[in-house]
Amino acid sequence: MFPAYVENPNNCRFEGQDEGEKVLLLLRAHPITNLAWIIPAILLSFAPFSIPGILKFLNLDISSIPQSFEIVFLIINYLLVGVIVFEGFLNWYFNVYIVTDKNIIDVDFHSILFKNIDTAPLRNIEDTSASMGGLLSSIFEYGNVIVQTAGTSENIKLESVPKPHIVADFILDHTHKIHTKGGINANQPH
Amino acid sequence: MPTNPTDIFNSEAFLVTLKAAVLLILIFYAIFSLIIIRQVNLMSKTLITAISPTLKILTLIHAFFTIVLIVVAWGIL
């Protein structure tokens, strides 16, 4: 339903997309990385069931507190669960890497209202490298891809993307295509 | 003289403080829900996908629910 690796995605556009610029690849972190917020959300959703046991262990009797407080605390607890899930999903869904026929774009939302968009033209890309490390990475086949750019511009790091070696090869292939096209055009008589 | 913790839970002052604390948390939460609306708008503008309208509607429902919750909590506590 929400894929992390999409070649030629339909119905997907981004801010600053030029007319005629085609999205070739849309990448997100591998879905398994979402466990970082799914596990706390599950634990928190079970928290209300453990509170009576904890109070009994601490020898505290809160039976005098009206039940309306308990209901409100329960609602607040599940609102928190909802926020963890929603924020986790938003961060995963909107932190994307986009490869177009002209550029490679890294869209980052670091905190709740701060975004950072790095763009590197494909013609400036010199090299790509893919790395996978760790148990989960090996099982689910995800890792980092580092895209080295020419000049002083910062390298772009695609973190925890699925099929990192295929992604690195995909980017390099399209970079070579642009370089070849540029080379041919440069040699053609005007 | 040692105080029994159960006495504290029984006191009126404790319940009033608890009500104020709950309402304060809910007010902060409502402000946070409004920030989420802004956040989703910003994200949807940056990456335009098919589910963006659904997410916007969800955030509006969520914000409405948090404001209703403040009113309800004010009434029942």
Describe the protein in words:
The complex is a heterodimer of chains A (190) and B (77). Chain A is elongated, with a radius of gyration of 23 Å. Chain A is an alpha+beta fold and 190 residues long. The longest helix of chain A has 28 residues, at 67-94. In chain A, the strands form two sheets. Chain A has a five-stranded antiparallel sheet, with no helix packed on it. Chain A has helices spanning 35-57, 67-94, 135-140, 164-187, and strands at 5-7, 13-14, 23-27, 97-100, 103-111, 114-121, 125-131, 142-149, 156-162. By secondary structure, chain B is mostly helical. Chain B has a domain at 22-49 and 56-77. The two termini of chain B are 31 Å apart. Strand 2 of chain A pairs antiparallel with strand 1 (47-48) of chain B, so a sheet runs across the interface.
Task: Looking at this protein, list some descriptive labels.
heterodimer, A: 190 residues, alpha+beta, PH-domain like, 2 domains, five-stranded antiparallel β-sheet, three-stranded antiparallel β-sheet, 9 strands, 28% strand, disordered C terminus, B: 77 residues, mainly alpha
